[in-house]
Amino acid sequence: MNTVFKALADPTRRRVLELLRARPMTAGELAEHFDFSKPTMSAHFAVLREAGLVDVEKSGKTVIYRLKLSVLEDALLGFAGTFGLGTRAKSSAVAKSNALRKGIAS
Amino acid sequence: MMISKPIQAGLVWAGALIGSAIILKAAQTNHLIGADAVTRGYQTVLGLTIAVYANFMTKQPAKTPPTERGGRMQQARRVSAWAMVVAGLIYATVSLLVPHPYDTYLAVAAVGTAAVVGVGNAIRCLGGFKPK
Question: Which of A20, A29, B9, B72 is deepest in the core (most CB within 10 A)?
Fold first, then answer.
């Protein structure tokens, strides 16, 4: 259950799950919705897979991701999305890293 | 011998069902609770069983294609699972709290409605008919 909470705490991973709610998608289709690099997206996918929230199928050269949420996990996803869990922590981490970068530059 | 995780979980749940039945019967034999409480207790456990199994319905592997139709198939499964979980929880609650015989009517109505919602939504999602 801890891995599930960890996976749902990140807004990017929640966005991936929300996209998969519409329909199963290939890794490329999912990555199109984000500005992140391929390794970053792969890391997010790995966390979701480890938590058992997505099902992965290799079909030739493409990797298909499917939603594999139980009803309880689905409710937790909705809850986390409604209250924006992890969004504040992420934005403060980004602000800190920006401040650090500015400090180094000046 | 290796037993798969779902079978292990099923055996544990079956053990819990049998265990709760034995505990309730023993409590009745020792005049701690009446026959009505035994029935209500067991009906509540059955309602929770429906909810727990429906909770994992969407976890079952399904090779839905990455297309719009695949999305609709996935949606049908989600709605069925949600409907059954809610029905299971209603079943458990009314079995515990609502006076007899209304508890039975409400419990059966809840599960029946969930089944109709699940099947109706599956037909709608898979293109059988489109409501206006």
Answer: A20
